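Data availability (excerpt). The following record was deposited with the supplementary files.
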Amino acid sequence: FDRKEIFHATASASVSALLSPKRNGNLDQSDIRSVASSVGGAPSDIQSVFTAPSLNIANSAFQMPRSMGGEGSEAGKFESLSRRDVDPRLISQDTEKAVEKLQEALRDPNKTLAELLTSIHTPEDFNADLGFTVRRKNACGALQVMTAQANNRVAIAWTVGVLPALVSVLRDTGDEGTHDSFPEKRHRVEFEAARNRAIACLMNLCMPVQNRIAIFHTPYLVHWLLVVINEGHGIPRKGACAVLAYLGKTVENRLLLVQVPGMLDALNKVLKPRPPRIERQELTSKVDQKSAAYGSEDEEDSHDGSATNTFSENHTVGSKAHTSVRSGSYTDESAATPRFSGANTPVEIRGYDETVDENLRAARQNVFALLLHLVKEKDNAYHLARHDEIMTTLAAIADQHDSPSHLLAIKTVAFLTRHRLNTKVLAFKQRDLVPAIVHGTSSANESSRLYSCYALQNLAQDKSCRQELAVSPNLISALCDRSRKAQSEDERLAAISAIKNLCDEPANLIPMTNTPDCVATLMHLAHGMEEGITDLMQYRACDALATLSHWLRKIATSGQALENARNKQRPPKTLFVPSLQVVPFNQWK
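Predicted structure:
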């Protein structure tokens, strides 16, 4: 129970450990220098990898590598290197001070807790027998009961030895998974039960806000959570995703979470849709009926919330909060081998959320909770938009309107469009995204339509994207439809604003006028006779019409300038002014 082994001695070493792919052992100075260089700091700047003085495009952690379209690649044309404004600082100075004081804040365990932790913790390369694993399972269960009490969570989390002991349980999963680490079935079942309970403890400990920085900076905890997620087992994967969702609720953790090696790939693996298939519903009865939920309804602090409650927060691009989604509770199932009763029932699965695996559904909800926390940070939005696999997955989910999760995918994309350097990447590189957003405007879910309009409004503000958007199939028609039919004031205003942005591109005059009802819709809104059309909507519709007429007058003026050039006259100084005179054909007076 050496408190010096609980956390890294410096914030620099702690950040380096999070950004290193290593999952075991201590980082040496070369590791810290390597990570310092990867975030834009000089190799000698070991003590400030999170406060790099300048962003070096060639070696920034936020720099999109060549394989993803960075400098020197064809897709690099979507980047504006001279305007890149990603902040290389990964943690604030206040967080740095807090991390370096973690060891001082720890308390020593009492005799009972010390004996419990001794039964849980294993050093590296320790070969546990079945008897030890059974005792460890029981000890993890006892610790889970203790952490289920809300008033115990802070004290337990800040006790020497608790977090390293729980990490040691995750570490015994092994790099290749439990089947390789525990080839004997009985031993493997007992270990998985212990691991489930350890993850339950972590989730309980993550609930208080004051615990999250300490848990996040516990050496190699996040890395082993990713191993559990990648292993793909239902209950522990769901719990690991819930723990990450809790950690992502704390602002100080968000920038580093995205930079952890393998984090985005692991999240994408959980979210990725499956093809249509046949699944079998297994009817089970557990030998051990003692199961404990990860957190109970009366244990939440009113100011805190949980991973399963995370969508009740306000995630807004505009001025209003919208639909919330609640994931299933994370339950620690039996500690013993399940017994199957009844025949397997084949079920045809087509939709994204249609699955007999409730644990997978809950894990996906927790991942969406984490993503919606992460995209609140500007630099994270920059980084996420350049991860091809996640963007492809989000586009595929957003297209499935029969799935409640499509709202969460559209909302995540809408937040990504808030970063001004993302618009060209999303419009030109992620080719499946704009059609999915356009399709989202016809969703039966009001919030999905709203965030689809928000996303198109933000994309259309970029001058270089307007022409590409205007020729996208059904985009202008979809915006006109929402401008006329939307019941929500925010949705209607967003659609009108998107049309207004598209009108600012002269080349869009032809697709705008060729789209049926586009001009008629703007004229209808400009009159403002219908109930529900606000002054701001009317103004933006008038502005769009005036802009279109401006481009028409520019065309007329250019024609007049050609005529003046043929007659060797000076070009007109003002736009063409209509004569307002009738032109008859040989009409008698």
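Summary of structural features: The mean pLDDT is 79.
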